User: Fold this.
Amino acid sequence: MYKSGTVLFLLLFMSSAYVLAQQKIAGTVVEKNTGTPIAFATVQVKNLKSTLTNENGEFELVVPELPVQILISHLNYASAGLRVTTAGTDLKIALDPQAMTLKEVTVGNPAIAIMQDAADKAYKTYNKSNYGRALLRQIAYESDRPVYLNEIWLDAEWKPYGLIAWHPTQARHLQGVKGISYTNTSFFSFILTGYLANSIHQKPLLKKVDSLYNFKLAGTFTQDGEEIAKIICTPKHKLKGKRFEGSYYVNTVTNNVLKIEGVIKGMYFKSSGPVSVKNKETTFIAQYRVNKQGDNVLDYSMLNTSNSLKVLGFGVQQTDLYSTLYMIDDETINRRELEAVDLEINDTKLVKAMTYNDDFWKKNPGIKRTEKEQAAIEILEKNTPLKK
Assistant:
C-alpha cells in the first residue's frame, strides 16, 4: 500500500516528465540572398502540427519530443527541410526565391484561359464545405497607439467563396481607454477569404472570368515540378463597388488557385455616433492548400485596412486594423454549434462575454506574436479587466 506522500511524489514526477517532454522549437525564416524576413511561410512538423511565420519571419512550435523533421514552404520560394534535434535553439532558415520567367506569346491571351480553367474547376466545388479550427487575430492602432485587440480560436465552416459559419471556443478582447469601439471586424475577415466571387465582393474568378476583369500573364515559375502562373487582375471600368486589384497565382497543371495578393477597392465601414470613417487602402492576401480530401481550401488570409477618422466632421486621425486568419483542418468540430457569419453580429460583445483562459493562450498562441503585437497586448491589458 502506497503512502499519500509517495503518491504525491509520483504525481509530481510524472507531471514534470510530461512538461519536459514538451519541446519548443523556434526560429526565423529569411530570403537567402538578402536576409529579408519571409512572412507567412508555413512551418510543418512531419505528421504533426504546423504554424505560420509572423511578419518578421519568426515562428514557434511546441512538439511532444525531439528530434523532428520540419518542412518550410512558401509559394514564392523553394521549399526546405530541416532535422531539429535540440530545443531552445534559435534556428535561422534561408529559402531560395523562385525565378519567374515570361514566355513569348504569339496568339491570344493565355491569362484568360488559365483563369477560366481555374474558375471551371472551382465552381464544381462551390458548395463543398471544409471544416476546421481557425485563429483570428486583430489589432487596431490609432496614430500608432494600440486601442483594440481580438484573439479568437473558433470552429469554422469554409467554402470556396468565403468562411460562412463560425463558433468561438477561446477568446480574449482588449480595449484601450480611448479610441473608437470596433463592434464587428470579423465579418469582412471571414467573407473575403474565398477565391470565388460572392454577393459581397466581386473577385475575378467568375463563371465567365473576362466579363468584369482584364488579365495579363506576369510570368511563370516551377514548384515541385509543376508550373505556377502569376496573373495580374484589373477591374474593367464598369465594375463598381468592392473590387479586387492584384494577382492570382494558379497551378496550370491542377488548375488550383494557390494565392491571391493585392488591394480591395471600394471598401466602406459603417460607424455610429460622431465618428466618420474613410477607407484609404485595404491590402489583402490569401493562400490556399490541398487538404486530405484533395480539395483546395483556405490556409491563411490577411486583411489590413488603413482609414481616416473624423469626429463631428473635424480633425483627421489615422487608424490601422491588422487582421490575420489561420485555418487548420478538423472534421471533429461540433457543427451544430456553428452560426452563420452575419454583418450584424456584434463579435466584440460576444468575445467579452467569454471566459479568458490564460493557460490556454500560453500553450496555443497560434502564430508567434511580433514584438509590436506583444507590446500592444501588454499596454491594453493594463486597461482591460479580463473575465477569468
Summary: The first helix runs from residue 4 to 21.
